[in-house]
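Entry:
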Amino acid sequence: MPTDAQLRDAAWVEFEQTTKGWQDVKGYKPDVLAKTHWGRGKAIFDQIGATTPIPPQPTTPPLMDMRATRISALPVSGRGGSETPSTAFDRLTYQCGDISLVADPRWTQVFRVHMHQNADWYASSHNPWGSPADPWHQVPNSGEIINPRAIADMEEAWYAESVRLLSPFHAISRAAGWGIVGQYGYGTLVGGTTVSPPVSIAVEAEGVGMDCDGGVFSLGTWTGQYHKRLNFVPIASVTDKWLDVVIGVRWTMSANGMVQFATRCRDNGETAFKTWHHDEGVPTAQSIGTLDEKQGGYFGLFGKPQVVGWETSFDLRGTTIHRTEADAIAALA
């Protein structure tokens, strides 16, 4: 749990961003005030000195830890090795300061991700290997933090992440494109083609949910054998609130896999996780071996560049990967 000093510092970060005086906002309705920097700062200050029971902890170390608390600094534009410490992540694929570190009263420190499309392509969210001359790289806005991980056939892994969508959050509809904040088990097809991730956290206009494209991937239809676009939690119900997400995957290209998606929003009074989707006997992986675990933003429109002026922001705790569902839930206590 954060210390009183960390709570104070996190509250000060919110107060520094205020543009109105306290006298201007103190009469706001509580739900409106809570969305302002004054309201967020006050909520943090109210926690100072409070006694909180020690939550349960995972029983075994995570298979991978990609939390923001692992590092003390990120570059404005980076590739792997330019964070501090330089061994924390394998690749940083963002530019323009699109991923930064901010203090948070619950998680101590989190990633703030800002996706945007400017008239100048180089000033927009993009990975450092693209260029305006490449038509594909003009389509998505992206910025991610990536670590590779060796995944064995029939391995069961449980992914724990917490997402806070910041108002005004501008989501893209499924019909127009996609919005992804975490991509898991990501690899390349034979010949080096990169495709849609086999499992991902989706944040689209229809809600927060999960996209799946497991099994043999078809470049003709651009889908996997197990193709799902699932949206469950309304965006408006969790904007400016931490939404905890636990995804379970039994990784395999055979019809013996498993995938599960569950969420909890404590700010909405939820104390237990709700399982929205569970499927057994399905292919979940596009390949087996050393694959990428990715966190950050990947947003785009089908077949065309993003609209100039579009932008959206969100916070991520950073993914941890566990051997059991119980450990993944405990990690988000």
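The helical segments are 4-15, 22-25, 30-33, 37-45, 235-238, 325-331.
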